[in-house]
Specification:
It comes from Alteriqipengyuania halimionae. This is Four-helix bundle copper-binding protein. Helix 2 packs antiparallel against helix 3, helix 2 packs antiparallel against helix 5 and helix 3 packs antiparallel against helix 4. This protein has one domain: Substrate Binding Domain Of Dnak, Chain:A, Domain 2 (Up-down Bundle), CATH 1.20.1270. It contains 5 helices and no strands. The chain is elongated, with a radius of gyration of 16 Å. By secondary structure, the protein is mostly helical.
Length: 130
């Protein structure tokens, strides 16, 4: 079963309220959280001071997870909170991507790429949240 199929079974969801862009961005955010967690763990054993990269990765992972959870809820939505959370996720992803982009490590490159994709997904769906 797919995530859109699961959400479509919600008693308050109609075809018009399914919002597949938000579902896809939420799915992507969960994946981004895993990438960021893996990157942070790899940064622990890198040479040099990786404290800021680790912090940004862990912050991004937590924000992505929270955003994904809010993005798939359909009962009595709080649109203002959802929009604020999406904006926070875009900021966390871009901040993490910028920091990871400063490092030559392959795990940082992949993390930065995933963060940028997730930020783009949420940016695209921000106007669809109502």
């Amino acid at each position: 079963m797919s995530l859109p199929e699961m959400i479509s079974r919600h008693p308050q969801v109609t075809d018009a309220s399914l919002n597949e862009a938000l579902i896809e961005a939420s799915r992507h955010a969960n994946l981004c959280a895993l990438f960021c967690t893996s990157c942070a763990e790899a940064c622990v054993v890198e040479d040099g001071d990786m404290a800021q990269c680790i912090r940004n990765c862990l912050d991004c992972a937590d924000v992505c997870t929270a955003t994904a959870r809010l993005g798939v809820r359909r009962t009595a939505q709080n649109v203002d909170v959802l929009r604020a959370q999406i904006e926070a996720c875009i900021l966390a992803c871009n901040t993490c991507a910028d920091e990871c982009g400063k490092h030559d490590d392959p795990h940082c490159a992949k993390c930065a790429e995933m963060c940028r994709e997730t930020a783009r997904d949420f940016q695209k769906c921000l106007d669809t949240v109502d």
